[in-house]
Amino acid sequence: MPDNAGKQPDLLIPGLRGFYDFSIPFSWFVVRFGVGWVLLVHGWGKVLRGMEAQAKVLDGSIPWAIGYNYYMSILLTFVEGLGGLCIILGLFTRFFAAANAIEMAFLTFILYWGNGFSWLNRGYEFTLMWGFMCLAIALRGGGPWSLDRAIGKEV
Questions:
Q1: Which one in 64, 69, 91, 131 has a CA-CA gap of 20 to 30 Å to 106?
Q2: Which pLDDT score is estimated for 81?
Q3: What residues does each domain of the chain span?
């Protein structure tokens, strides 16, 4: 580790110290909310579509899993929908963030990798980014503004 590992850099505008001291603990909630909201909306879309229709979408994407895609649809809806809500709330944060990171790794390397980087060509651009965001949340946990912290336990 470098000698300055625990030292914060000096501020160019020292008058901002109070704002940063107040806002830094809140910043992790902002990250969790953004990631959780996107996941929740994707999970809710799967609920509205229905598991049968979602399985057909997966049949076209994962032909080697035909027959299991109905169960995969349930799993993805649970991980994204309930997981997104729990990430927002900071409840079971590490578990659901890790589950979504694994899902995004699967989507990135199995489904989208062959399409290249650009999301405009159904590439892996966004699944890779969301995977890294979920991994960061899984490594960091819920942070100070989380239900995990409020109940004093986390996975």
A1: 91
A2: 96
A3: 29-148
